Predict the structure.
Amino acid sequence: NLTYTENEIDDFEVFNSFTDSRGTILIRLVRNNTQAMYEIPSPNKTYNETGVILSYEGEILSQFHIGEAFPINETLTMSLREDGGFLRTYIWPNYTVTWTRFSSLNDQYQPIKLGEGVFYIPQPQDIFVMYDVFIKVDGGYGCAILTNSSLPITSKEITWRAYVLFLPFNSNQTTDLFILYESSMPWYRMWIGPCRVSYDGTGYGCFLKPYVNETYLRFIYNIRFISEGSVTLINRLQFRDPSNWNFLDSYSVFAGGYIVVGIQSQTERVGDLYNTTGMVYDTIDFAKGHVHMNIYPMKNTFWLSSFSTNNTKEWTITTIDLPKLIQYGTFHERFPNPNINRTIPEINSTISLRYKSLTIMYYSQVNFGTGNVSIYQYPNTLRQVTSGGSAVYDPVTGLTNVTISVFSSTFNRPNTTYYIVVDTNFVMRLQNHEPLYGIDKNIWFLTTESKSQDLHTDTASGLLRLSVNGTSEFKAAYATLGYSVVNALANQIAEAIPVANSRISIRNAFQIEPNTQPPQLLLRMDIGQLTDDKEPDVPDLINDFRVLLKESQFTDLSQNNYTAWLDSTYNFVPTDDLWRRYKFAIILTVVLLVATSLVYLFAQRANKEARNFIIFTIVIIIQDFIFDLLFVIENSNDFPELFLPSIITLVIPLTFNTFIALFVILSENSREDKFNDWFRKYPQIAAVFTILSCADVEVLKILSSQVGRLNLFSATFSDRAESMIFWASCTNILIEDVPQFIIRFLYHGKNITYNILPTIALVSSAIGLLFAVINRLYQITARCSQRRCQKAVMQDDELEGIPVRNINGYQIVNRTVTLE
């Protein structure tokens, strides 16, 4: 019993009471309030209509304004769906049925007004008599309207009409009117209602009550119909004692049949429980004083309310358990649904890890509707959603059994509880296309088997790509919230898998995928090692996440605000096996290094006095130039801010070195000396190394290196040419080597992909820069030492009286050497 007291209420009246699956009751009250929206002609009083939300323990959870007070024939109808809200209907004004749709309760136990409209009468000659609103199995509403003709009554004319129309779930557009009943009988008056849904998928039923005179009711009609408006059956219920019984109300019973409540002996209320064939199954006794009643379908209980006569204005709710006319059996005692025979696996079963399918066996043949089957990890983590279009019929049992495929990532944690929710209208009854009632949350529980596993220390990394819309939304959120957006995305991914948040992290760096248009962002996700044996190890985690991402429209990834940004077509790209991807390049590099070393050893053996190390210098210069060129072609556009600097640091040094090389060769060739003789013998060699010197003018030094005692490497450069090559090489450090190293370093800090080319380019640039700096320092030291020696020799020769001549800037010492 539940007792509620409210001292502020004036002219207290309980119109109706409803229940929802959150354990609350909605009560509609008329309250005295000086700020009411509507005033009725009553001295010094204003009224408005207030909804009060109560807990089952009687606690007031919230109060809210419903609308104007005291309209005609007002009703509140609660949707059968938990998220369906309720519908308020009343006659206002001009005897039209006005409706207002409210949402379900939010976190503050407050409903929101969603829409409103009017149910119109189609025939202009019809006069509105009354209406009755009822719920649909799929969460929508229906309304039956009774009219009487204003034309003169004759034996051949239709004088009474009953219509029905529907307001679908989540819609403010009603269907057309369907005719349920027409009659030319000259009834004194007629009533329609109540109209109720049948939970077994047979449709709906409305009662019509024709009166012969003011009080006499001989029988009632029970009209059965479906959502398409077709009438399937009309039953005439004859009462056992019509003179001592008057119809009051009727209610559909969840476990089969319906209750007809009447008044006998003017004051005593009695209830008869009818089965589906229209026969009386049982009689229900009511305590005196009950003035309001309703059925809580899922619990198969009958609710009754009564009022006390004292001044505290209290009322009491009493419940009665109803018998089950459908023979459920032991399985259905725990699994209340009149349409389902059984499920595989059964309720409270233990299943294996990564269980692959679910099967629902219905009593009647079905086809698929618009509802879903959802799998949750207890208490509230969505693992998978499957629509009716994705399910299949069992090939053996046919249209009564439905099988749902389960992703390998769904039941992925050992010794964990899951539950399955089946939406109403997941399937429809094949015979009449009526949606069948589903399975509520926290009923069909399953538990995965226990499994121990070793804790591994493996880790992994991989790339994620955001969709086009996700990229723009991520940029906007990141500009406002910074790294917290990245962290929130990582947490939602961890919750969707699900694993501990500490195992999933996303680096605070991202870049544009160059092969997409419009541009899409790439993010790098790191996966930590296994720390809980109930969680999947790294390989299973990667596979689970790939399945979740591929099937994101059916998983929690598409439901969350951040993970909805992910591009499911890109999936998850883990770290590449560098050997598998670049083994040919690595082998080629090793072969080149070995070949260079062999050439150097051969040259060193042939002529130890030659500048043989120039071989390594040229190899380093050429490979560095090749990687610089490849980097500009392949990677410079990955980050727009680095594109132009990459082009500049390639083109300007290339132009500079080409100019210096041509100038040195042409100026040296214009002199009448040994270089001119060499150039005439080896013009092709000069052309080849002039081209190679575009990478670095120091390549020209190989022409005078005497490598291998080969004449083609015996050109003679003047001191002026040697000096020009040296200072040009020093300039290259400033305009090429240092800027390129900085660009490669900045790229490496921003890069999150696994392309080895930028890394090799960075290493090559670093080695080239280090080699160039050290080489130039050694050359400067050597040149300074050479000049000091030359100056000392000249001073000694002058002291000895040896003549010194200056010809074209060169100091010539006339020294005679006597050989014995």
Residues 590-799 form one domain. The mean pLDDT is 79. The first strand starts at residue 2 and ends at 4. The CA atoms of residues 461 and 526 lie 4 Å apart.
